[in-house]
Amino acid sequence: MYILIIIVFMLGYIGIALEHKLKVNKTAIAIVTGIVCWTLLMFAPDGKLLESADYSKFLRIEEIEKGAEHHTVISPDELHKEYVLFSLEEHLGEIAQILFFLMGAMTIVELVDAHKGFRLITDKIKTTDLRKLLWMVSWIAFFLSSVLDNLTTTIVMVSLARKLVGERNTRLLFVSMIIIAANAGGAWTPIGDVTTTMLWIGGQITTLNIMKMLLLPSLACMLVPLILVSFALKNHQPTIKSATDNELKEGHAKLMLVLGIGALVSVPIFKTFTHMPPYSGMLLGLGLLWIVSELLSPELDESTKKHYTVAGALSRIDVPSVLFFLGILLAVGALESMQTLHSFAALLDKTFGDQRIIITLIGLISAVVDNVPLVAASMGMYDLTVFPTDNMIWEYLAYCAGTGGSILIIGSAAGVAAMGMEKIDFIWYLKRISLLAMAGYFAGAFVYLLIR
């Protein structure tokens, strides 16, 4: 039965990777994979689980709640089913923290965007030098993604590139550089990339340490391909159109931009001082922003005002992505509960021996396979008691998983979003950008290992 669970997981992985070929949304595949894995685990009792640390923890809780004699009156099969339900509830609690955090962040970003807050940043760009423009766009994408997230940053910056660069082939170079910069920028802060957020919420990394250790590697990851792309650009005068928007109220836009970014940035500070989980700080920021949005523009009628409030923002967030994380994290949780990931970690250690090689390979694999399940699997493979918070393995994993996806257009959420917006061909990106992105990836890896 355990072999069947692994086969189902692998088939789900393949289905997610071939989403465009199968014409089936990866969210649907992830949800089915996660639920089927847990259902099969429910009917797969095995004596090996009795020796696991999770099973021992489950037995201790059972003894406290129901008394030690409880285990003498039920069969091993029934005890196994109780253990599976116990594990499912534990994993679901951990997953819910990530999902509520992501939903809160997405809603805040949508609310700021509805008030045209990001336009205050993008409209400041006034240059006709293409290379200077490329550097400005890349730096903005790098730092913006460290505060927001790489997906949102990519959407905002690709929209900007459309406005500034008319010639398609040149614009695709800009968009490709935006993907690389956004992924690099998202890796060095706990709120910039979903994989770094997962490690932060899981207790594997801390805010100040990850920012200190990954800033320079992330910069190297962006700068190497940026320099190379700059040489590839010819002298060209981009067409810059002045953006006018009658609905833009600059006072409201400034207020919501400051409050929105302030809410996102204050989450790590809130966690440090209150010791509350990160999602609670995110939801607090969302609630305060919600109150402010309701008080703005009281003269608008209800139907128009809804667009500028959290109620409207909630209708625009990417719910399929949230459900995708739910499905894939459930599937990975099933493998973790049946000790498969721990066995795989032992096999990797035996084969390669060096954790740096293993994590580097994980980063390269993330160019083909979604980095969310890869990081989730890695979190299950390595124990916090063996590799404590801020250990090299977690820092390096945050960098590699966050930036390795830039090597292929399908390797990151930012790449997939840009691919859809600009209809970028997979082969075009592979021929022109993949080697540049790989050069940046290894440059950043070298810088990190040098620092360490």
Task: Summarize the structure in words.
The protein is globular and about 70 Å long. It has 452 residues and is an all-alpha fold. It has helices spanning 2-17, 19-22, 26-42, 53-66, 76-114, 119-122, 130-147, 150-164, 168-187, 194-201, 207-232, 250-274, 278-295, 302-305, 310-316, 319-337, 340-351, 355-365, 371-381, 392-403, 413-422, 426-432, 434-451.
Which helices and strands occur, and which strands form pairs?
Blueprint: H1 2-17, H2 19-22, H3 26-42, H4 53-66, H5 76-114, H6 119-122, H7 130-147, H8 150-164, H9 168-187, H10 194-201, H11 207-232, H12 250-274, H13 278-295, H14 302-305, H15 310-316, H16 319-337, H17 340-351, H18 355-365, H19 371-381, H20 392-403, H21 413-422, H22 426-432, H23 434-451
Helix pairs in contact: 1-3, 3-16, 5-12, 5-13, 5-15, 5-16, 7-8, 7-9, 7-11, 8-9, 8-21, 9-11, 9-20, 9-21, 10-19, 11-20, 11-23, 12-13, 16-19, 17-19, 18-20, 19-20, 20-23
- Oligomerization state of this entry? single chain
Alpha carbon gap, first and last residue: 43 Å
Helical region count? 23
How big a fraction of the residues is strand?
Answer: under 5%
Mean pLDDT: 81
Low-confidence spans: 240-246
Would you summarize the structure shown here?
With about 450 residues, this protein is mostly helical. Helices cover about 75% and strands about 0% of the residues. It is built from 23 helices and no strands.
Summarize this structure as a short list of keywords or feature phrases.
mainly alpha; 452 residues; 23 helices; single chain
